[in-house]
Design a protein that fits this description.
By secondary structure, the chain is of the alpha/beta class. The protein contains 10 helices and 4 strands, in the order ααβαβαβαβααααα. About 65% of the residues lie in helices and about 10% in strands. Helix 1 crosses helix 2 (about 25-45) and helix 3 (about 65-75) packs across helix 6.
Length: about 260
């Protein structure tokens, strides 16, 4: 008998809460509209999926055929766009401070000559790591370019020493890496970032609603009515208020996962 009374009380509180959601615009907007607005905004922000045309500077002290070739590789990479050619490291710093560039490549003096003499040299990559997406893209593509050019220089040197081209390539790169990228072949951060942020936003909306559920009863002086509806049972208040919002947020999750994300 007691259980039936509790279920009846929970039902009355749940019905009352459903009515409050439909009658109060703030709760309705938070529970139903806001999750999809936030998700839509996130999709629009990250609609490009991948980073393109990151502004970079070139500081070339070598002015050689090799540095020119590396520069052409950088310009042909979709993730980067050369916007300026600096004449000093101080100029590069100023470009970073002004927000003109997000990355810079420095080719040291006599770079090609040092390589031809069989010695090692360095190419410096400066990155603004405040934006991890940009810096990771520059680092990833920049490393690929330098490794490609470095391997090509070694193959060319071995070829001039009389080594056959295929043998030279095998020496320069004895291990061939064959990658098979699954599920996100384009390294598209929209695939994982938007669902994660949308889910987090839904979580924050739910927490905000949970705070408002009880505080609104006191601010609107309706707590006595709530107690009367719940037959003075605290458990009926907690469960009854939770049921409508659990149902709505579960529906939100289903729509987000089943409709919004696939679209």
């Amino acid at each position: 008998m007691e259980d039936k009374k509790l279920i009846h009380s929970i039902g009355k509180v749940a019905k009352r809460e459903f009515n409050r959601i439909t009658e109060r615009k703030a709760l309705y907007l938070l529970a139903v509209v806001l999750p999809f607005v936030v998700s839509l905004v996130l999709f629009l922000i990250f609609k490009n999926g991948m980073v393109h045309q990151i502004p970079v500077a070139i500081f070339d002290e070598d002015h050689s055929e090799l540095s020119t070739m590396i520069t052409r590789f950088i310009q042909s990479t979709p993730s980067m766009s050369i916007v300026t050619y600096a004449n000093s490291l101080e100029e590069v710093k100023q470009d970073f401070r002004r927000g003109k560039v997000q990355a810079a490549f420095h080719f040291p003096e006599n770079m090609e000559a040092i390589i031809k003499n069989g010695r090692q040299t360095n190419v410096e990559i400066f990155m603004n790591s405040m934006n991890l997406l940009n810096s990771n893209s520059v680092l990833n593509d920049g490393a690929k370019i330098i490794k490609t050019v470095s391997g090509g220089a070694l193959v060319k040197k071995l070829g001039s020493a009389g080594v056959m081209q295929q043998q030279a390539m095998d020496i320069a790169s004895p291990i061939k890496l064959d990658t098979k990228i699954l599920f996100n072949p384009g390294y598209n951060y929209e695939v994982y970032l938007v669902p994660a942020l949308a889910s987090f936003a839904l979580h924050m909306v739910t927490l905000l609603i949970a705070v408002l559920l009880i505080s609104a009863e006191f601010s609107e002086n309706t707590f006595a009515d709530l107690l009367n509806t719940a037959d003075n049972k605290i458990s009926a208040i907690i469960i009854g208020k939770a049921i409508p919002h659990l149902a709505i947020q579960s529906l939100n999750v289903i729509i987000l996962l089943g409709v919004f994300f696939p679209l």
